[in-house]
Each structure stands twice: as structure tokens, then as C-alpha cells.
């Protein structure tokens, strides 16, 4: 019998420092008042049926990411797998930081 089947709670998923920063940046930079950053599931899609972001939000998020992390986000990366959800976006940020020698 699995832990879920026995009515036991799942173990919490560890959140990286980057994931936490990206969550907070998302809420702050897009002025998502009333939304607790911690309540956003890491695997929830950022666009469409997920969090409901649109192309203007994507541009604002890119600017915020570039300022917060001092990275460059090439335009061809916006809207691709890197921006699929918070986990993917955080991994993208970590990759860019590593490439810049800051991770």
C-alpha cells in the first residue's frame, strides 16, 4: 500500500533557493497581489490554463529576471521549455548563472 493510499501526506518537495527567488520575483514583478509565492506549484504552467500569464507578462518577467540575476535571456528562449513552469524557469536561470561562472 502506498503512503497516499494509507492516507499519509506526501513528503514536501524541496525548493531550491533559485526556485524561491523566481517565485517571489514572479509575484512582485507582475504585481500579482493576493497571490502567495509559496502557493504557486513548481510544475504549474505559467501560461494559458496554468497561471494565466500572457505575452506582455512574459516580457515583464524577462526584464525582471535579467535585472534580478544579471543574466541575459535570448528572445528565442522566451515561451519555450525554459518558461514552461517555475521549475523549468529556475533551472534555466541556474544554467545561465553557471555559464556566467556565478553558480
User: How many beta-strand segments?
Assistant: 0
**How many H/I helical runs?**
3
Q: What do the pLDDT scores average to? A: 86
Largest beta sheet, briefly?
A: none
And the CATH topology?
Non-ribosomal Peptide Synthetase Peptidyl Carrier Protein, Chain A
Content of β-strand: under 5%
Low-confidence parts lasting 5 or more residues at pLDDT below 50? Answer: 1-8
Structural class per helix/strand content? Answer: mainly alpha
Separation of termini?
Answer: 41 Å
| Global outline | globular
Architecture, according to CATH?
A: Orthogonal Bundle
Q: List the helices and strands in order.
A: HHH
Q: Please, how many domains? A: 1
CATH superfamily heading: ACP-like
**Radius of gyration (Å):** 15 Å
User: Which CATH top level class fits?
Assistant: Mainly Alpha
Give the helix level as a range of percent.
Answer: 40-55%
Summarize the structure.
This protein is mostly helical and 103 residues long.
Which SSEs are present, and which pair or pack?
Elements: H1 17-29, H2 55-69, H3 86-99
Helix pairs in contact: 1-2, 1-3
Describe this structure in words.
This protein is mainly α and 103 residues long. The chain has a single domain, classed as Non-ribosomal Peptide Synthetase Peptidyl Carrier Protein, Chain A (Orthogonal Bundle), CATH 1.10.1200. It has three helices and no strands. It has helices spanning 17-29, 55-69, 86-99. Helix 1 packs across helix 2 and helix 1 packs across helix 3 (86-99). The longest helix is centred in the middle third of the chain and has 15 residues, at 55-69. It is globular, with a radius of gyration of 15 Å. Residues 1-8 have low confidence and may be disordered.
Amino acid at each position: 500500500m502506498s503512503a497516499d493510499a494509507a492516507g499519509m501526506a506526501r513528503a514536501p518537495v524541496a525548493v531550491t533557493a533559485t526556485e524561491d527567488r523566481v517565485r517571489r520575483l514572479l509575484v512582485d514583478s507582475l504585481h500579482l497581489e493576493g497571490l502567495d509565492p509559496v502557493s504557486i506549484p513548481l510544475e504549474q504552467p505559467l501560461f494559458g490554463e496554468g497561471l494565466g500569464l500572457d505575452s506582455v507578462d512574459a516580457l515583464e518577467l524577462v526584464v525582471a529576471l535579467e535585472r534580478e540575476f544579471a543574466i541575459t535571456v535570448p528572445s528565442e528562449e522566451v515561451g519555450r521549455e525554459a518558461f514552461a513552469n517555475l521549475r523549468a524557469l529556475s533551472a534555466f536561470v541556474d544554467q545561465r548563472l553557471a555559464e556566467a561562472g556565478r553558480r
